Amino acid sequence: MRRTYDDLVQEAATVSVDGWDFSWLDGRASEERPSWGYARLLGERMATAEAALDIQTGGGEVLAGLPKLPPVAVATESWPPNLALAASRLRPRGARVVADDGGSCLPFRSGTFDLVSSRHPVRTWWGEIARVLRSGGAYLSQQIGPRSVFELAEFFLGPLDGSARDPRAAKEEAEASGLEVVDLRLERLRMEFHDVGAVIYFLRKVIWIVPGFSVERYADRLRDLHDRIEQEGPFVAHSSRVLIEARRPAQ
C-alpha cells in the first residue's frame, strides 16, 4: 500500500540521524560511488602505516570497516553524539578517539603521524595537517566537490553560488602548506530520492545542504516535492566528490 505524505514525513522527521551510516535510505535513495574506492585506498594505506590519524571521523564507520589498523590509530570528532558512536566502534579495534572543537588546531605534537586521513571534512586545515605529518607522510581524503547536490539545495533555497570547494583551490592551499599533491580527481555522481521521507532524512543528516532545514520551515516545498515525485518519479541530483592525496616531502 502506498504510504501517505503525512506518514512519510512523520517517520523521517523522528528517526535518529546520529552517526554517518546511511543504511536507513536503502531502497529509498541511491547514490553512485566514486570509481577510486576510497575505503579500499584507505585500507591499503592503513595496512602499511605505523601511526595514523583520521580527522572528523563521524561515527567511526569508515575506520571500523577496515581490515587492519596500524599500531597507533587515532580519530578525532567534535560532535558529541558522533563521538560516542566512534568510541564504541573504534576502541574495541584498539583505536583512540579524541574529542576536538572542530577548529584549526589539532591536539597532537608535530611530526606524530605517517598517515592522516579524512572522509568528507567540513574544512581542511592544511597547515595543521602538514604540521602533524612526519617527513614523507601522506594525507588521503575524499571530499565534497563543487556544486554537490545543488539540484536539491536549489529546490529549497533558489539559485546558489557554486564557486566553493574548487579542487584547484585545495591543491593550491596544500602546496602553500608545504605539501606535494600527488593525486587529484573529481567525479559527479547520480543520486535518486524515491520519496519525500528520504529527502527529509538526508537533509536532517547532511545539514550543510539546506542550512537550518526543518520540516516546519519548508512544509510547502516538501509538499511540492512529494507531489513531483508521485507524478514524475525519483528526484534526481548529482553529488560531487574529490579525491586528494598529498605528501610531506621527505627530509
TrEMBL record:
GO function term, MF aspect, one: methyltransferase activity
Domain Methyltransferase type positions: 53-139
Record keywords, A-Z: Methyltransferase, Transferase
InterPro entries noted in UniProt: 23S_rRNA_MeTrnsfrase_RlmA, Methyltransf_11, SAM-dependent_MTases_sf
Alphabetical list of Pfam families matching this protein: Methyltransf_11
GO BP, sorted A to Z: methylation
Annotated protein name in UniProt: Class I SAM-dependent methyltransferase
Organism listed in the record: Nonomuraea helvata
